[in-house]
């Protein structure tokens, strides 16, 4: 049975499991009329949704992360900034208790995430896209973090995520020059994995997610865990032991049996 958030309203995260393919879900960043600028409430919703998602929804094998209304997302909702961002303590509290934990929850999620990137993808929106495993954009998409124009740097925890995802050279240009990259440059810089015609971004992202969703889920989840562990350094002995828990699984047995029997795996 499909589980969905209430109907869209300004500034919220929408989440729905596909009723036809329950292994697939869609997460939508929605802030109508503001290019999906991320409010504090949206950051908190994002963290709540991703915390424990893989455990709550064990059938899920892929999530499409997208924006509403023709854009992925711009940065933070600046209308909120005068209330807290001009004081060092409150600015630090915001960045370290709202965006950073939400992004970390995405990184910690064992379900593969596919970013469908339409239009603008900057600031906090780019940080969210950077936490996705596969990023697919349209030719008209634009990428960057032009916060230097606003007189503030990228917070350390958020910068660490960007550094890991897109590298020092690219993030340095984004931050120091406040420049935006077009889709072609983004592909060259490995900010995105694929660029397609604007009208086919949705179809390409959905097809990608479906390909993932139709494959065994345990292997994908273990791969995500191992990628995180390797990014931190060598695996511990307990992590190595846990990695091989797939060996006796039904998915592994069926996959090998189907290959040997020259038939389609069930």
Kindly list the characteristics that best describe this protein.
9 strands; 2 domains; alpha/beta; 15% strand; 2-enoyl-CoA Hydratase, Chain A, domain 1; 266 residues; 6-stranded mixed sheet
Q: Would you give the CATH topology of the largest domain? A: 2-enoyl-CoA Hydratase, Chain A, domain 1
Tell me the fraction of residues in β-strands, as a range. Answer: 15-25%
How many individual helices? 12
CATH architecture of the largest domain: Alpha-Beta Complex
Kindly state the mean pLDDT as a whole number? 94
Rg measurement, Å: 19 Å
Give the total of domains.
2
* Tally of strands: 9
> Which structural class matches the secondary elements?
alpha/beta
Low-confidence stretches: none
- Helical percent range? 40-55%
How are helices and strands ordered from N to C?
EEHHEHHEEHEEHHEHEHHHH
- Give the termini separation: 22 Å
Query: What overall form do the CA principal axes indicate?
Result: globular
Largest sheet: 6 strands, mixed
Within CATH, the superfamily of the largest domain carries the name: 2-enoyl-CoA Hydratase, Chain A, domain 1
CATH domain class of the largest domain: Alpha Beta
Instruction: List the strand order in the largest sheet.
Output: 1-2-3-4-6-9
């Amino acid at each position: 049975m499909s589980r969905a958030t209430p109907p869209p309203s300004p500034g919220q995260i929408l989440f729905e499991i596909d009723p036809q393919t329950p292994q697939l879900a869609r997460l939508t960043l929605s802030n109508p009329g503001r290019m999906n600028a991320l409010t504090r409430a949206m950051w908190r919703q994002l963290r709540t949704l991703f915390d424990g998602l893989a455990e709550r929804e064990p059938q899920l094998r892929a999530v499409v992360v997208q924006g509403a209304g023709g854009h992925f997302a711009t940065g933070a909702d600046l209308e909120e900034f005068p209330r807290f961002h001009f004081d060092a303590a409150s600015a630090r509290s915001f960045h370290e208790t709202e965006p950073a934990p939400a992004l970390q929850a995405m990184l910690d999620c064992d379900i593969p995430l596919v970013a469908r990137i339409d239009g603008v993808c900057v600031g906090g929106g780019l940080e969210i896209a950077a936490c996705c495993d596969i990023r697919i954009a349209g030719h008209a998409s634009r990428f960057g973090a032009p916060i230097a124009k606003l007189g503030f740097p990228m917070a350390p925890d958020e910068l660490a995520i960007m550094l890991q995802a897109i590298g020092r050279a690219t993030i340095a240009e984004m931050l120091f020059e406040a420049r935006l990259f077009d889709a072609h440059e983004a592909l060259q810089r490995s900010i995105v994995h694929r660029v397609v015609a604007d009208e086919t971004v949705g179809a390409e992202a959905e097809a990608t997610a479906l390909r993932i969703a139709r494959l065994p889920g345990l292997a994908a989840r273990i791969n995500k865990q191992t990628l995180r562990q390797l990014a931190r350094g060598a695996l511990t002995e307990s992590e190595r032991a846990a990695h091989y828990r797939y060996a006796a699984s039904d998915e592994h047995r069926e996959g090998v049996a189907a290959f040997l029997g020259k038939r389609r795996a069930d």
